[in-house]
Every structure is written in C-alpha cells, then in structure tokens.
Write a structure and sequence with these properties.
The complex is a heterodimer of chains A (281) and B (261). Chain A is built from eleven helices and no strands. Chain A is mainly alpha-helical. The radius of gyration of chain A is 25 Å and the shape is globular. Chain B has 261 residues and is an alpha/beta fold. Chain B has a six-stranded mixed β-sheet with strand order 6-7-8-3-9-10, sandwiched between helices. In chain B, strands 2-1-4-5 form a four-stranded antiparallel β-sheet, with helices on one face. In chain B, a hairpin with a 5-residue loop joins strand 1 and strand 2. In chain B, helix 6 crosses helix 7. Classes of the chains: A mainly alpha (281), B alpha/beta (261). The interface between A and B is medium-sized, with 18 and 21 residues.
Chain lengths: 281, 261
C-alpha cells in the first residue's frame, strides 16, 4: 500500500526538478540583459523625445552609428587588433611568470622566504608608477606597454597560485609523498590540479587587470588601440566615440572572461562544489 | 622482515607519543595494533610509512633503514584520500606512473575487477559511496604490490555491514600476494578477525604492553566460542593496559565492554 501512495509523489517531484533548469536556461541570460537594455532604450527615448540633446551623453543609436562608421573604414579592426595583441601578449607573459614563481614560492618554503617579501613589496607599488621607468627603459612603443600589462597580470596570478598551494589539504599531499613524487611531479600531479579552481579565479582577476592596464598603457602615447580612441574622442570632443570604445571594451572583456570560463569547464568537471548544484557556468 | 627497534617519538611540544617501541614482524604476517587513545598507534604507523621521522630508534625493512616513504611500503588511511580530479581508474594507477601506459591500464583493469568496481572505472570519486571509495584506496595501495601494507583505522568511518564486507575482502586480496599487513584499529572484533598477532599498546607515553597470538585458522567464524575467547583476552589486556582493575572479566560483560577507549 505504501508503495502505491508514494509513487505519484515521487513522480511529481521528478517533474518539478526537470522543469526548473529548463526555465532558467532561457531566463538567465535574458535576466542579465534586462537592466542594460532598459537603460539604453530609456535614454534613447529621452533624447528622441527631445528632453535632452544627447550631446555629452550620446544615445545608443549614435554610438552604434559611430561603431559602424569605424568598422566600415577598417579603423575599428585595426584598433581592436592592436589592443587585443597587447592584452594577449602581456597576459601570457604575466600568467607564465606568475604561475612559475607562485608555484615555486608556494612549494619551497626557502624560496618563499627569499622571494615573497620582495614580490609583496613590489606589489605595494601602484603599477602605473612604473610607467615613466618602463618608457625610459623600453621605449615609448609596444615593449613598455606589454611590460606594464604583464606586471599588472603577474601579481594576482602569483598571489593566487602561491596562496592556493599553501592551503592544499595536507592529507592529499601525503598521498603524493607516499608515492614518492619528486618536487616537480608533486607540483604537476597534486598541487596544480588541487589549486586549479582558485587558479581560474586568479586568471580572471589577472585578465581584468590586463584590460585595465592596456588602457593606461594606451593613454601614454599610442597611435592605435581602443585606449587611443578614448583619448582621441576626448581631445576632438567626440563623446560618441568614447562611449563606443567603452562599449567595445565591455564586450571584449566579457568575451575573454567567458573564454576562460568555457576553457576551464572540462577541466573542473570533477568538482563536487556548491556552484555545480546550482547549474553554474 | 620489518624490524622496529626502540622507536621513540617526542613531538616538538614535548609530548612523548611513543617510547622505545620494539617489534619484529615477519613477511606476510598480519599484525593488529590496538590501544587506548593517545597510545601512539598512528604515530608508530606514520614512522613505519616514513611520513614522520622517529626521534630515536630505527625502522628497518629487510635491513634497509626507513626514513622516508619507500616503494615497498604502502598505506591506507582512515579516509580514502582519493584525488578528486582523477577518475577511479586513474586514482588506482596513480602509483604506476613509471610503467608504460599499456601495462598500467592492464594492471588497473585487473585491480578494478578484483575490488568489484570494474563498472566504475570512469566515475569521479565524488560519485562513489564511502565503502566504494575505500575499496579504490585499497586497490591504489595494492596495485604497486608493496611488501608491507599499513592500514590506519581503514574501516572506522564505515557502517558495520560495509566494514565486515571490506574486512573479508581485504583478507581475500591479501591472499593474492601475501604482503605484511599492519593494521591500527579501535575495533577488537576487527583485530581478532584479521590478525595473526595483536599488539596491545598502553598510553602516555605510548609503548608496547602485551602481545596476543591469534591461533585461529582462516576463514574465521565470528560466532565461534574460540573467537569469543580471543576477543575476551584482547579486551582484558586492553583494560589492564589502562590500569583498570577488572578482576572478573565475565562479571562486567555488558554494553560497557566496548567503551574501553
């Protein structure tokens, strides 16, 4: 008897479980777009109705027209390519250096005692303060810009890797010791996989800083790049061009961040985490 | 042969966890170490594993001094300690990284078969039950064919039924290559089911108190009177190790007897 009573209840809860994710799969991105779209349409309407001339805050249609203009002349591709190249190369250098030094400082306590105080002291310097020195050392062109971006990316990655290694579960590390892993093997087979979730976070923070520093780098004298578009827009009084560059920054930043998210997903399938249950990613 | 000679361990905070522990353990012998809490059982096991170094005294395996983890010595911990980012099969093959891939796959497949988890080869550790995870840990420790396998309360986190099942399973696996087993346990039943010899330790500082040979043929019947009498002598010895005055063991038989720790 008990069985026949229970059966429908189980079925019902099953159905409930399958329905919830299906709804949210479509609802979630839409929900995220609701606020910016409403604001944009609202402003467009305000300007269209004549409540504002939109000269200092251009309506979305004018920004879009500027972007299309730039795209048609081929300017846009050139600027985006220049900026992407700088961020990409600077990010790569910063990540490689941050990961290597972070892993070394995290694993060998002697290296940490030697290295970490200096790195922390350097970290305390606002990275922009390096700009004059980098220009003197590396010239006004690409090298100094990429170096600045790499410095910005380096610190969060270094700190993330080192900090995460220091809190890896001792019990797991003992498994590596029992199987007599050498130092590099311990890092590769135990520590790096264990810190991967934290590593992804520090990569995303690093990438964010990379985008921040590319603007700083392009402010200090560039003839192309999205940062140049900003300065050019300011000097020639073209707010639509400034907003256009900002919008493109937002799109590129979000897109590259999303690439990290997508790339990590297959590597972190093993996780038994709170975010998984929520259907994160 | 595994020889422990006057092994002592004093922790930096001054606690003397283990004092002059000596024992000789034959190849293929199954030894259970039992004792009240703080008697240094786990300290001893970690010294044999080479995870911690003894403050004085020596651990030698076939005349080779052990001061760091050794290829011939494996260990199974209280928790499975599987690597969550490796599949079940890769966890079992973790200690076989030096073998060519084909040979490794073959050994892992055989081990999976042997512990009855062939269908779980590609599962993640998070998808296993506690008993299954501990079986994977056993397979991982056994697959490199150690001469000595240490077990640190390996079944204490499992329910009674699963524990029994795994005890039998462990004996079955042991029979394949007959490594030396050194088992730290809280469970008198477990000690008498598995061991050839039970070492009773006494706490503060931890030292050897008594040895009881379990001369029972395998497979052992947990319900036989002889099994019971061995259990009783281990319990009596344990009580004495804690300086409890229990003149008449039979008179105090009750639920309290399992509460000696």
């Amino acid at each position: 008897m008990a069985m026949t009573f229970e059966a429908p209840a189980v079925e019902q809860s099953d159905r409930g479980v399958t329905r919830a994710p299906r709804l949210s799969r479509y609802a979630r991105p839409l929900l995220g777009l609701a606020l910016p779209l409403t604001l944009a349409l609202g402003w467009e309407l305000v300007v269209w109705l004549g409540y504002s001339n939109g000269r200092l805050v251009p309506p979305p249609s004018r920004v879009l027209a500027t972007i299309l203009d730039l795209a048609r002349s081929g300017e846009l591709t050139r600027h985006i390519a220049a900026t992407l190249w700088r961020v990409g190369l600077g990010f790569l250098l910063g990540v490689v250096a941050g990961t290597l030094l972070g892993a070394i400082a995290g694993y060998w306590s002697l290296a940490r005692r030697l290295l970490d105080p200096t790195v922390q002291a350097l970290r305390a310097i606002p990275s922009i303060a390096w700009v004059p020195l980098f220009i003197l050392w590396l010239g006004i062109f690409e090298t100094s810009k990429i170096a600045l971006i790499a410095v910005g990316v380096f610190f969060p990655v270094y700190l993330g890797v080192m900090g995460a290694i220091l809190i890896v579960d001792r019990k797991i590390v003992e498994v590596g010791r029992i199987f007599r892993l050498s130092g590099p093997a311990m890092i590769r087979r135990i520590l790096l996989p264990a810190v991967l979730p934290a590593y992804v976070v520090s990569l995303r923070v690093g990438l964010g800083l990379g985008w921040m520093f590319v603007v700083a780098a392009e402010f200090m004298g560039a003839s192309e790049g999205l940062g140049y578009l900003l300065i050019d827009g300011q000097q020639l009084g073209k707010p639509a061009q400034i907003v256009a560059a900002i919008v493109i920054f937002a799109i590129l930043g979000k897109l590259t961040d999303w690439l990290i998210e997508v790339a990590k997903a297959p590597l972190l399938r093993w996780q038994d985490a709170f975010g998984r249950e929520q259907g994160g990613a | 042969m595994l020889a422990l000679e006057r092994v002592s361990k004093t922790y930096p905070n001054g606690v003397e966890a283990l004092a002059r522990f000596s024992a000789a353990i034959r190849q293929g012998e199954i030894v259970a170490i039992i004792g009240g809490s703080g008697c240094g059982k786990s300290t001893l096991l970690r010294a044999i594993a080479g995870l911690d170094r003894a403050s004085s005294g020596t651990v030698t395996l076939d005349n080779e001094a052990i001061s760091s983890p050794h290829a011939k010595i494996g260990i199974i911990f209280q928790e499975p300690r599987l690597l969550p980012w490796l599949s079940v099969a890769d966890n079992i093959g973790f200690g076989l990284a030096d073998l060519p891939a084909g040979e490794r796959r073959e050994k892992v497949a055989r081990a999976l078969e042997r512990v009855g988890l062939a269908d779980k080869a590609d599962a993640w550790p998070r998808e296993l039950s506690g008993g299954q995870a501990q079986r994977v840990a056993i397979a991982r420790a056994l697959v490199p064919q150690p001469e000595v396998l240490l077990l640190d309360e390996p079944f204490s986190a499992l329910d009674a039924f699963t524990r029994r099942d795994l005890q039998d399973h462990l004996l079955d696996l042991w029979a394949d290559t007959r490594p030396t087993l050194i088992l730290v346990t809280h469970d008198v039943d477990e000690a008498v089911v598995l061991a050839d010899r039970v070492l009773v330790m006494r706490p503060r500082p931890g030292r050897l108190f008594d040895q009881i040979e379990i001369n029972l043929a395998r497979p052992r019947d947990r319900n036989s009177p002889l099994f019971d009498s061995f259990k009783r002598s281990v319990l009596t010895s344990l009580d004495r190790s804690l300086d409890r005055n229990v003149p008449d063991r039979d008179a105090t038989q009750g639920p309290g007897q399992a509460m000696w720790w």
